[in-house]
Amino acid sequence: MAALEEGFTLSAVPLGAGPHGLLGVEQSDKTDQFLVTDGGRTVILYKVSDQKPLGSWSVKQGQVITCPAVCNFQTGEYIVVHDNKVLRIWSNEDVNLDKVFKATLSADIYRIHSIQGTEPLVLFKEGAVCGLEALLAEPQQKIETVISDEEVIKWTKIFMVYKHPVVIFITEKHGDYFAYIQMFNPRTLSKYTLVLGQEEKSVIQSFSASVDRKFISLMSLSSDGCIYESLIPIHPREPEKSQRVVRSLLLKTVVSGNARNGVALTVLDQDHVAVLGPLLPASKECLSVWNTKFQTLQTSRELPQGTSGQLWYYGENLFMLHGKFLTVIPYKCEVSSLAGALGKLKHSQDPGTQTVPHFVNWETSRGCELGSQNSEQSKRILRRRKIEVSVQPPASKQLLSAIKKDSEKHIEVELCKFLAIKRTPDFHTIIGDIVLELLGRHKAEPSFYPRNSLMQLIQTHVLSYSLCPGLMEAALEKADVQMLQLCLRQFPDIPESVTCACLKIFLSISDDSLQEAEINMESVSDYSGSVQEEKMEEQTEILHNGFNPEEENCGNCDRELNEKPQDTAEETTLCPVIPKRAALLNAILHSAYSEMFLLPHLKDIPAQHVTLFLQYLYFLYLKCSENATMTLPGLHPPTLNQVSLFFLVKSLCFGLPLCLFCKFHI
């Protein structure tokens, strides 16, 4: 069970008065001592156990510290950067920073990284990472430009992997985020694009990361209040090529989505993260601890004086600004167990701390039964299960073995067992292997179509079209509209040819078949009704591709549209398709595509289906026009721009008069 102990104020004077709050809190060469860099001119060395400063150093008036001070663990000296390019190196005996060693470099510094076991590494704002000794030997050497123009570094961290340093830094450009991994044995730089998973595009407010032998687990707290995780391989197969990693949802709504300031995230251990920010829109800022293994809020503490949105964690201490003073809150955590996650373990609790068992729906009641046991019983049960599991083959191997020979029902059972265990760093790779194995057997045995298993795997949010292109191909072959809709919502990289193939099926499938299908209806709401089948057949006979081919000029089109305005209004109040078909068509409108690559494939769609789709687009436009905000009802409806753009593309593709688009768009 995680617990926040009684905190205390470390600094007796206000800090963080500058625009960036504190620049940083860094470990010294003594376990209990920390360097605190204010956002102005001062570096203070604190001893936490004594709650007092041991030393203080300042740059002179007119100079500004621009990077957090760090300790060189190889020499015991301290290093700080002022005015972006000037290094100062000193020891405890020095008093005046103006008289200590100075080196002026040729490029702006973003951060100096220092960690036990290696020399300090300097990360420049242009993305290059250099060792301190090489820079001191030749301070004015030319620094390589690594990142592109307008790309800005947002966050960085250093790890030791196999006794060698690894530096990760995140950049942002026009709302897109990129991760760079700098290795030093051998020296390689890998670049990854952080691809959105199930979430809408949002601003990332805070990053944190942990590492194992194979992967860096990059966590990000976004403006929607959720925490997402990306697993980045430390040793990529092709480090020289730019690659993509998907952000998958880890924890939902850990802070209010309305929070814009005072929000931060840090990893505490394998199963816990700490978050700064309000839990509810109207609540005060607070520090909360979440269990990522069991998806529970373990504990929280209100911070009535507010924070700067900065959080540091070393050993068993959390550092933050509470109001204007640096505050330390000790953190304790027992071994993660289900009973502890649900708040059932006996423990002492600080009266100012709230423990909130905020948990998700468990698939079985076993977890609740375990939670009702006392601490000793829980430990015995978990110990016994651990022994049982240790003599069995890994769940993924059991599942892959079952896929080769067992029935669909048995595979579903094995898949549920696999998905119930904690995700490992190579989870997305295993999921890809499972999907490929299922599709391989389906290809060899056409009667074998493990639909339920494939649907479960898609909903893990780690798949993409490029990882398993055969998945949508199988769904198209089976006309599985529910799976196609889910793929359109989840996959960010579907080719335009496949999108058009989905559209063709969505328009051609019968209403009776759709009534039996389970379609997600979030994007459809408050449609006043649908046109009867007989009426649609009559309209299809009159209109060809949305207009009368005998009328060749725009004047005739205007006259036709204006002759019977009353009848037109009556017809367009009804949706031309049933709600389930509307939900499928909305999935097409939401999908990402390029007009240039979309046009050739649209021409393969029969004219009567094109007419029906255009009528539906026009209906959506009229629904948008019914309110002042020009938006559609529903939880995730298409936007007016999506509707208008698709209408224009189809108009250009099928040679419709431009005046129809003008009337539609206006």
Automatic annotation (TrEMBL):
GO terms assigned for molecular function: RNA binding
Highest taxon above the source species: Eukaryota
Residues in Nucleolar protein 11 N-terminal domain copies: 1-332
Chief location bin: nucleus
Domain Nucleolar protein 11 C-terminal: 397-643
UniProt-listed InterPro entries: NOL11, Nol11_C, NOL11_N, WD40_repeat_dom_sf
Biological process according to GO: maturation of SSU-rRNA
GO cellular component: nucleolus
Keywords: Activator, Nucleus, rRNA processing, Transcription, Transcription regulation
Keyword Nucleus: yes
PANTHER family xref list: NUCLEOLAR PROTEIN 11
Subcellular localization, as worded in the UniProt entry: Nucleus, Nucleolus
Name by which UniProt lists this protein: Nucleolar protein 11
